[in-house]
Amino acid sequence: PELRISASSIRLRKAGVPVVCLTAYTYPVARLLDDHVDLLLVGDSVAMVLHGHETTLGASLEMMIAHGQAVMRGSARACVVVDMPAGSYEATPRQAVASARRIVNETGCQAVKLEGGVTVARQIAAIVAAGIPVMGHIGLQPQSVASDGGYRIKGRTQENVAALYRDAEAVEKAGAFSVVIEGTVETVAADLTRQISIPTIGIGASGDCDGQILVIDDMVGLTVDRVPKFVKQYADLRSVISQAAASYAAEVRSRTFPGPNHVFSAAADKNKA
Ligand code: KIV
Ligand code: NA
Question: Any idea which UniProt keywords this protein has (predicted)?
Answer without folding.
Answer: Cytoplasm, Magnesium, Metal-binding, Pantothenate biosynthesis, Transferase
